[in-house]
Amino acid sequence: MPLVTIDDIRSAATRIRAFVVRTPLIPALWADGDRPLWIKPENLQSIGAFKVRGAFNAIGNLDESVRTRGVVAYSSGNHAQAVAYAAAVFAIPAHIVMPRETPAIKVDATRAHGAEVVLCEAGQRERVAADLLEQTGGVLVPPFDHPDIIAGQGTIGLEIAEDLPTVDNVLVPVSGGGLASGIGTAIKALCPQARVIGVEPELAADTAEALAAGHRVDWSIEDRNRTIADGLRSQPSELTFAHLQQVLDGVITVSENEIRAAVRELARRAHLVSEPSGAVALAAYRRGETPPGRTVMVLSGGNIEPAMLGEILVG
User: What are phi and psi of 213, to 5 degrees?
Assistant: First the structure.
């Protein structure tokens, strides 16, 4: 199947420039001497996560006559907020399907942007979204299974390559695979010497298993829901898996305790608030399994319930 190219990502960067934060690379001065570390803090985006990039690229690339019909999305949280925010900017209606177990902070933030939120049971969001599409006549903006979404997320890789062209390792959270697909495509095109390494929780390690097997595998939603990293409970699509097979040099899996420790370290040492899903790259770095060299970790989001953050910080 056709894969996203660096030209697609460059076009996305132009399309979304007015709507997203060009996040800096922040040096982690306390990192290991032989593995200097930089943080790409996507928690600083307007909605607190990288998803805003793909949402603005996908909605901005729609023909205006189509876009005015409104959009439908399904998401455990960050994509929901991103689509709701982008829809508000374009002054179009948005209907967002979210699982009932989604943290309240993400549901409330999505509603705050003016979207109509429809809560559903675990594993039912695609079916509910299909019903909404039929009812509203809107356009589906999927969380990862679309070239425009992948290209939008890939603008992070474009920025990393521009700011640190000598990067050796890039650590990227993996769930549905849109983020890693886009960043990997950009890094492989612009920094071919660099290794792109995916990171996922041990309790939702379907991508690691799938890449080892050479084909997608299915983990039950009950299994994937065990991880504290609620943003990493999706599985790659055919489209994203095809990208991941091309651009990932490996996958590191991390434990729940390692994820919690990474959230604490980011708060205490970098003064950055990270949700568990956003901290997995630092957890992987701390395992010491990445080769020596200049390493960038993508902090993908910072939307965490205050009560959970407090519990983790004192844990």
Answer: -85, -20
pLDDT range class, residue 106, cuts 50, 70, 90: confident
57 neighbors 26 (Cβ within 8 angstroms): no
Spatial separation of the C-alpha atoms in residues 153 and 55, rounded to whole Å: 9
pLDDT in tens, 16-42: 999 999 999 999 999 998 999 999 999
Amino acid at 195: R
For residues 245 and 234, give the distance between their C-alpha atoms in angstroms, rounded to a whole number: 17
Residue type (1 letter), 20: V
Q: What is the pLDDT, as a whole number, of residue 25? A: 98
Compute the mean pLDDT over every residue in the chain, rounded to the nearest whole number: 95
Question: How far apart are alpha carbons 135 and 83 in whole angstroms?
Answer: 19
Interstrand relation of 37-41 and 26-28 (parallel, antiparallel or unpaired): antiparallel
- Annotated catalytic residues are 51, 300
Q: Is 3 exposed, middle or buried (0-12, 13-18, 19+ CB in 10 A)?
A: middle
Give all domains of the chain, ordered by start, each with its CATH number: 6-48+146-314 (3.40.50.1100), 52-140 (3.40.50.1100)
pLDDT of residue 241: 98
Q: What length is written for the chain?
A: 315
The separation between the first and the last C-alpha atoms of the chain, rounded to the nearest angstrom, is 46
Q: Is the pLDDT of residue 160 over 90?
A: yes
- Residues whose CB is less than 8 angstroms from the CB of residue 280 and which lie 6 or more positions away in sequence, other chains included: 173, 199, 200, 201, 229, 232, 254, 259, 262
Residue 154 C-alpha from the chain's centroid? 10
C-alpha angle 92/5/138, rounded to 5°?
Answer: 20
CB neighbour class for 164 (10 Å; exposed up to 12, middle 13-18, buried from 19): buried
Distance between CA 141 and CA 139 in Å, rounded?
A: 6
204-230, pLDDT tens digit by residue? 999 999 999 999 999 998 899 899 998
